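Review form for a predicted model. The reviewer records the input and the model, then writes brief findings.
Reviewer: anonymous (R2)
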Amino acid sequence: MARSKHTNDILDPVLANLGRTIKQARLNIGYTREQLSEYSGIGVRYITAIENENKIPRLQVLSKLIRALNISANTIFYPETNNNNPEIETITNLLHFCDEQDYKVLKAAIEAMIKNNKEK
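Model under review:
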């Protein structure tokens, strides 16, 4: 089944920048291609092809890369929402491991930090 023109309009910029996005995420956390290969189970040559030759990976491969890089899928599919701060990305991903009580504690801590910064 062919994709609609609207779908192509959305995906084309994503696919065009996929390799650059993966490479930047890798560099942001200080991984070599060899390390990313080890953590993701994807071959170094395949990672190189994705980063430098615009190779479009299968969904399963992309999922492994996203997880190994500890980035959100939004980094790939909605790059315009990225703030290019790996610390914020890591914190956001860690939130998925929290429970409701953790959210309340974190919210209170963040609100206190913001209030403290405004008072300075």
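Findings: Residues 50 and 78 are 18 Å apart (CA to CA).
Further findings: The chain has seven helices and no strands.
Recommendation: see findings above.
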